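debug: dumping io for the single-chain case to check the tokenizer round-trip. Nothing else runs in this session.
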Amino acid sequence: MIFLFYLKKFLLQSQKDKMNKIEIVKSEVSKILWREKSGHDYLHVFRVYNMAMQFCITESDADKDIVGFAALLHDCDDLKIFTPSEDKFPNANRIMDLANIDHVTRTYIIDIIDTISFSKTLSGIHPQNINGWIVSDADKCDAIGSTGIIRVIQFGTSKNRAIWDPKIAPIAQDDKSYYQYDKSTTINHFFEKLLLVKNLMFANAGRREAELRHKMMVDFLRQFFIENNALEWIKMLDNLKA
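debug: decoded output
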């Protein structure tokens, strides 16, 4: 009985410690991303975290701690937001120091956040296990669907992009340098990235979610082109969908 008492006490304390670490990370992420206006703010991060936790229910082999921390930290050093540093992932490492995250867990987390970006995918780099797959899927799912539509408009506005120019055709995505430095339009960004995302899912939960969100974007674009009498763009959408 005494053994069971102390075992229960240890388990409760361990769970409390994990919750404290998560709260520290959430707080620090909020501090550095709350002013972000390009669609990569702390609300995006929390949506990715919550979705990743939901995916973990289906993907039972996942390590929820690693997935949770990686989801929360995945944009803390994004070069679209932060100035490059000589130190790799300085914000993520500082936050993990504050949360007292152990070295082994930290190594897994850094490996995940270093391999999930769309530009890395274009280079053939991607996560190697279920934990990274879940974070990658959740991050990419938040880029599509109704939330993705709002975020791409927000991102385009932050980059002073035109909403649409029917004379500018989308460019095929086969070079990460183009993705990082292009001067495309917001509507073209759907063709150049967002409509490709559903085929970049790794796990079953992500695939199911991405299919639903993809359909919503296709319906939105079709209606947009109908309202603008853009028949050639509707054909382009149908060809891509096929």
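debug: round-trip ok. Confidence is low (pLDDT under 50) at residues 3-13.
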